[in-house]
Amino acid sequence: MRVRNQQLNQQLNELLNEQLGECVRVDPPVGPLRPGRSSREEVAVDHASLEGPDYREGDWGPAYLICGDSADMGVVRLRPGDAMPNHIHRRCDESFVVLEGTASLWVGAQTRVHLDVDQVVRCAPGEMHYLVNDSDAPFRCVFIKSPSSPGDTEIIAWEPGEPVPSVPPPPATD
């Protein structure tokens, strides 16, 4: 049974990483010029809007807004009943800033954290987390993954009410 779960988790991870795609990076990011500076001394500023993001699932899911070397930022929208699968990031923190609605963040498949507007929460590297909109209204939050670590999302199959899954060991490095 454990081998089958590990195979299922691997398949889910491969599928998720295929669907995530890469963050769009602007090279070089350019911001406004400061008075008295030439164009060669432009300030590097990434910027994006929360208005009309490209959600992965059409009108819900995550949408990356800014991707850089030190952090990736985006927004997640969940309709009532929608959930982001239980997962970990081995190399980055993931923080959430609630903009709209309420939801539950399950941490370590044991602790339920009620999220409400204006709350901020951080999951450490290696900490399983599962986000679900268990309300009857849309939920939206900003997410920040730092440091940036594309491909660092590992799905660990679990939903509330199921036994706590074990976190697989990190992949062997060469």
Structure description:
The protein is mainly β. The chain has a single domain (2-155), classed as Jelly Rolls, CATH 2.60.120.10. 11% of the residues lie in helices and 33% in strands. It contains one helix and ten strands. The protein has one helix at residues 2-20; strands at 61-67, 72-78, 83-89, 93-100, 103-107, 111-115, 120-123, 129-132, 139-146, 153-155. The strands form two sheets. It has a five-stranded antiparallel sheet with strand order 1-2-9-4-7, with no helix packed on it. Strands 6-5-8-3-10 form a five-stranded antiparallel sheet. The longest helix has 19 residues, at 2-20. It is globular, with a radius of gyration of 18 Å.
Structural topology:
Layout: H1 2-20, E1 61-67, E2 72-78, E3 83-89, E4 93-100, E5 103-107, E6 111-115, E7 120-123, E8 129-132, E9 139-146, E10 153-155
Antiparallel strand pairs: 1-2, 2-9, 3-8, 3-10, 4-7, 4-9, 5-6, 5-8
Short descriptors:
174 residues, mainly beta, Jelly Rolls, five-stranded antiparallel beta sheet, 1 helix, 10 strands, 11% helix, globular
